[in-house]
Amino acid sequence: MGALIVVEGLDGAGKRTLSAGLVEAWRAAGFVVSTLAFPRYGTSVHADLGAEALRGRHGDTASSIEAMALLWALDRRDAADGLRKLLADNDIVLLDRYVASNAAYTAARHHEGGSGPAVEWVRELEFERFALPVPDLQLLLRVPVELAARRARSRAASDTGRDRDAYERDSGLQARTGQVYDDLARRQWMSPWRVAGPDADPRQLAAEISNQLHHGRGVTR
């Protein structure tokens, strides 16, 4: 069974770039690696409904914190069997966002911290009721809110099909979400966490994670 590793962080933090660097380093070291990004836009009806709601469609759906959280959770539930197969067929499965993202944004919308009822509700929903695989390691890419916002604006400007949604435009929400992520990492929520900054070297980080997993659960190459 492969190791499940998750990269978490704010919108515009650079998760995609870091993930690509990690995958390249692991494959060069001989690991068999697969990746998956949540929400699964273009593949999952739940993810697409959530994206549309954040851009003003579907009535007042976006105003309901729990309705939005349920859409993101249902996307992962529908992907669970495929995720388990990836774990069976690979040494490492790297996810761009997972359950902690739902916990962080839901808590932040409620103005709660990482130990509040919103985080517990997401945990019960996704890990207990939906029985999603628990990560072996969660990696928080921590960047200043201003930098993440600037990157999100730049991404939207360069990609006409990727305009910023309501979450990305809300600087207060992004700041609170960053604080919840810090809480989750500090509490080692659901699994071990690591924290990386915007200048992290993917090759060095990949080696450190491999060593950590080797000592923790016997993943070797």
UniProtKB/TrEMBL annotation:
Pfam families the record matches: Thymidylate_kin
Biased composition, class Basic and acidic residues, residue ranges: 160-171
Superkingdom, natural source: Bacteria
User: Does this UniProt record's set of keywords contain Transferase?
Assistant: yes
Q: Where is the Thymidylate kinase-like domain?
A: 7-188
| SUPFAM superfamilies xrefs | P-loop containing nucleoside triphosphate hydrolases
Signal peptide range equals none
Q: Write out the GO MF terms.
A: dTMP kinase activity
Q: Could you tell me what reaction this enzyme catalyses? A: dTMP + ATP = dTDP + ADP
Locate the region Disordered. Answer: 152-172
PROSITE patterns on file: THYMIDYLATE_KINASE (PS01331)
Gene3D superfamilies the record matches: P-loop containing nucleotide triphosphate hydrolases
Presence of keyword ATP-binding: yes
Class in the EC hierarchy, top level:
transferase
Query: What HAMAP family does the record tag this protein with?
Result: Thymidylate_kinase
Q: Give the record's family classification.
A: Belongs to the thymidylate kinase family.
Q: What is this protein called?
A: Thymidylate kinase
Species this chain originates from: Rhodococcus indonesiensis
